[in-house]
Fold:
Amino acid sequence: MRALELTTVRKQFKKKRGEMTTALDGVSLNVERGEVVGILGPNGSGKSTLVRVISTLILPDAGEIRVFGVDAVRKPKIVQQTMNRVSVEASFFKKLSARENLLYGAKLYGVTGREALPRIGTILESIGFDMKRVGEPMEHLSRGMQQKIALARALLTSPMLMLLDEPTTGLDPRSKKDVQDLVNAIRAQHDSSILLCTHDMGEAEDLCDRIGIMVDGRIVELDTADALKRRYQQNGHLPSLEEVFMAVSGTSLEDADARESEKAEKAGVN
Ligand SMILES: Nc1ncnc2c1ncn2[C@@H]1O[C@H](COP(=O)(O)OP(=O)(O)OP(=O)(O)O)[C@@H](O)[C@H]1O
Ligand SMILES: [Mg+2]
Structure:
């Protein structure tokens, strides 16, 4: 049975003035058990929306989502217990300590404090979180530290499917490496399957079995990094993943990001 199976999933959002944005334009995607699939795509291409429909935070307009065979739209409660999501905008009880937030997160998944406490130590140590600060309120921690707590919270519940939405964005190089090593360790130890959205080409190449490239709400390519490079080979030159990305999306990540913020400015979003 597959960890994740998406069939022609669509999602539109209402903009101001009654216009619609198509965030997901018929996305079909499979993630096998134990597989790590990366999604690359410029700002606004639909990566986070994809993660949010899978995690049952929002409902798709059409299409089917199955997590270990279970329909995520019809049986969200069952599906929620088998997966966990880490995103850049992770939410916490700000006044509570990191430890309290982690214990609360574990409890939601039926993991008791007695089970969770020793694991909190092990996980936080492995991602280089300073244990002296685990008792401090979340709001006193830096973004990077909070990101590590978000990741630890997801790992505590041993999810069979992990949805990682830019898990290393905003981390310093050392912490980034710690988090990436941890993701690799999870793959090796557990039978977890991972969907990882990232802007980091190196991260995608190092961590992912297959890489999808998302443009305007569609996954336009999905394959191993090597296969993608071979497909976009020109005159015997094997392109880098960044070059493949440019060829596929008609732009580089930086250009695309710049264009997107320009668009947002014009639309008065910011
Ligand atoms: N709640 C919402 N309401 C209205 N529009 C939304 C909402 N969420 C996302 N969108 C729109 O859907 C599109 C896809 O957004 P999404 O956040 O999925 O992109 P992304 O690929 O994750 O981008 P980024 O790389 O910046 O994180 C964008 O046009 C965005 O403005
Ligand atoms: Mg996003």
Q: What stands out?
A: The chain has one domain: 4-266. The domain at 4-266 is CATH 3.40.50.300 (Rossmann fold).
